[in-house]
Amino acid sequence: MRRIVTGHDAKGLAIIDKDDEIERLDVTPEHATFAVMWSTNQWPIDNQTPADGATKPTFSGRSHNDNGSVVRFVDMPPNACSPMHRTQTLDYGIVIFGEVELELDGGEKRTLKAGDTCIQRGTNHLWRNNTDKWVRIAFVLIHSKPVVIDGKALTDEGFPGQ
């Protein structure tokens, strides 16, 4: 299972911090597999920690965060593009079907396909469907501390209704 983890360079521009494959673990007699893409163990989330969230322990017997979260599915029509935007959250974006391009304000781009996961860590980004087919992405958003670069907080910007 592929994941893309974003971060920031020393100037505060969004970067791709990790683009790698996560090992699937066979965890049941029926051969269900789990892949921990990212997890956190503090609140609010610190988007500047250098630790790899795939190596953090998961919470046994829990499937939610008592402090709240938002789960959102986005269906994007063919040849559509979101505005460039940043949210003060940690977002898990999972492509359910279709293909979508992620573009960061630093200029980097990655194409995600069904099953790929993007972990957005307060980065400025947009989503672009360059195909003639619909795409669906599942998002989990969890409130985070603002990213601070050279003493300046990078806060929500760019998306209507924020």
Automatic annotation (TrEMBL):
Domain of life of the organism encoding this protein: Eukaryota
Organism in which the protein naturally occurs: Pseudozyma hubeiensis (strain SY62) (Yeast)
InterPro entries registered for this protein in UniProt: Cupin_2, OryJ/VirC-like, RmlC-like_jellyroll, RmlC_Cupin_sf
Record PANTHER family: CUPIN TYPE-2 DOMAIN-CONTAINING PROTEIN, SLR2101 PROTEIN
Record's signal peptide: none
Pfam families attached to this UniProt entry: Cupin_2
Listed name of the protein: Cupin type-2 domain-containing protein
Domain (Cupin type-2) ranges: 73-138
Lineage: Eukaryota, Fungi, Dikarya, Basidiomycota, Ustilaginomycotina
